[in-house]
Write a structure and sequence with these properties.
Number of helices: 8
Oligomer: single chain
Number of strands: 8
Number of domains: 2
Shape: elongated
Strand order of the largest sheet: 2-1-3-4
Structural class: alpha/beta
Strand content: 15-25%
Helix content: 40-55%
CATH architecture of the largest domain: 3-Layer(aba) Sandwich
CATH topology of the largest domain: Rossmann fold
C-alpha cells in the first residue's frame, strides 16, 4: 500500500514558511513509511487543501493521513477539518484526519529546549533574575487561549517568572506583557515566540511591538529565543499523531 501524509498549515506568503514545511516533509519521508509526504495551506496562498489531496492521489496514494498543523484549536482548525471532510466524502480513497498539535506535551518540551539552547549560547547565568515572556498569536476563540495557557503552565513548572501576551486580537498585548516583565525588575527578559514558522510575525510584527514597549518601559537586556520551527521532536510528533489516528480509524 502506498501511504501518503498531508500536512495542512494555515498559510503564508513568506518563503521561509514554505522552506520549513518542505524540510519537515522531507525528514518525515526519510524516517517513516510514508511514500508520499506533502503540505498544503488552508488559506492565503496555494496549494490549498483540495490541491494537496489531488497531488497525493496523482502520485499514486492508496491512503492519505491528514495532519492539521495548528498550535491552537479554534475557527481556523475547524475550517481546515470541515473542508477536508467535504473532500473526503467526494474522493474514493481512504483518508483520516489526526488531532492538531495543541495539548501535546512535545510542544512545551520544544519551547524549553529552545530556551535552554539560548541560555547556553548567550552564556546567560540561569541563577540571575530572568523573566520569560511567551508571545502567542492571539484569537477570539477561548479554546485557543486555553491551549496557549497549557504551554504557559508547563513553563511555570520550571521557571519562576513567566509572563505571557498576544500579538493581536486579545489582551494582554505585547506592550502590557513587557510591562509585566519589567515590574519584576529582571536582569534579563527572554522573549519566547510561540509560533510554528519564521513568518512575518516573527520577522517584523513582534519586533516592532517589542521596540515600542521598550521605548515605553525602558531598555532592558532582552533576548529572543527561536520559534518552534523544524526539529526531530516535531517530526516525531507528526508521525505519532498520524499513526494514532490510523489505528483508531480502523481503515489502515
Amino acid at each position: 500500500m502506498k501511504k501518503a501524509l498531508l500536512i495542512i498549515d494555515r498559510g503564508s506568503k513568506m518563503n521561509e514558511v514554505r522552506e520549513e514545511l518542505l524540510e519537515t516533509c522531507n525528514i518525515i519521508k526519510k524516517v517513516s513509511d510514508y511514500a508520499i509526504v506533502e503540505y498544503c495551506f488552508l488559506e492565503v496562498v496555494p496549494p490549498f487543501i483540495d490541491q494537496g489531496i489531488k497531488t497525493c492521489i496523482e502520485k499514486g496514494a492508496d491512503s492519505i493521513t491528514i495532519v492539521p498543523y495548528f498550535l491552537y484549536p479554534g475557527m481556523k482548525l475547524k475550517d481546515a477539518v470541515t473542508k477536508t471532510a467535504a473532500i473526503i466524502s467526494e474522493e474514493k480513497i481512504r483518508m483520516v484526519v489526526t488531532k492538531p498539535l495543541s495539548y501535546q506535551p512535545t510542544i512545551p518540551k520544544i519551547v524549553i529546549d529552545r530556551l535552554q539552547y539560548l541560555l547556553k549560547d548567550k552564556k546567560i547565568d540561569p541563577t540571575k533574575n530572568i523573566c520569560l515572556l511567551l508571545i502567542g498569536h492571539g484569537s477570539s476563540d477561548r479554546r485557543a487561549r486555553d491551549a496557549f495557557i497549557y504551554t504557559v503552565k508547563s513553563l511555570e513548572a520550571i521557571y519562576p517568572n513567566v509572563r505571557y501576551c498576544f500579538l493581536e486580537l486579545e489582551p494582554p498585548d505585547i506592550n502590557e506583557g513587557y510591562k509585566n516583565c519589567v515590574s519584576l525588575d529582571p536582569d534579563y527578559i527572554i522573549v519566547v515566540p510561540y509560533f510554528l514558522h519564521k513568518g512575518i510575525h516573527i520577522q517584523r510584527d513582534i519586533l516592532v511591538d517589542l521596540e515600542k514597549a521598550r521605548e515605553n518601559y525602558g531598555q532592558r537586556d532582552i533576548y529572543i529565543s527561536s520559534h518552534i520551527g523544524v526539529n526531530d521532536s516535531i517530526v516525531d510528533l507528526v508521525i505519532y499523531l498520524a499513526k494514532e489516528a490510523e489505528m483508531k480509524s480502523g481503515l489502515f
